[in-house]
Fold this protein.
Amino acid sequence: MLQPMRTKFRKAHKGRIHGVASSAVNLAFGQYGLKALEPERITARQIEAARRALTRHMKRSGRVWIRVYPDVPVSKKPLEVRMGSGKGTPELWVCRVKPGRIIFEVDGVSVEVAKESLALAAAKLPVKTRFIERISE
């Protein structure tokens, strides 16, 4: 699973996801992509599950690029622990995704295979997504 080797700070504030994405809004590597339509936090496990569904349906042909990286730690307190006594330990890693951000890119497969495999990957993610295609000149 994806997670940083080390970070500047161990714990992060939750924060809110405002506005639309300014980076990773256009296809940079592949011919087809999966674009997020709503703001949400995507966990490392969800990214990995989507990647597995995607590559399995493509039968390991073609190429996949992951355009998001989970670099925000989310802390959780253990079950049945009383209030207070500080913030919990970091349990999982998430990526804050804004609307318009491309999550996955695919190349080297037909449009039908790309559409089906990205739909399977989208089912593993907590955001509404849209299939996008590079406009060939």
In short: Helices lie at 44-57, 111-122. The mean pLDDT is 96. Residues 75 and 90 are 4 Å apart (CA to CA). The chain is about 20% helix and 30% strand.
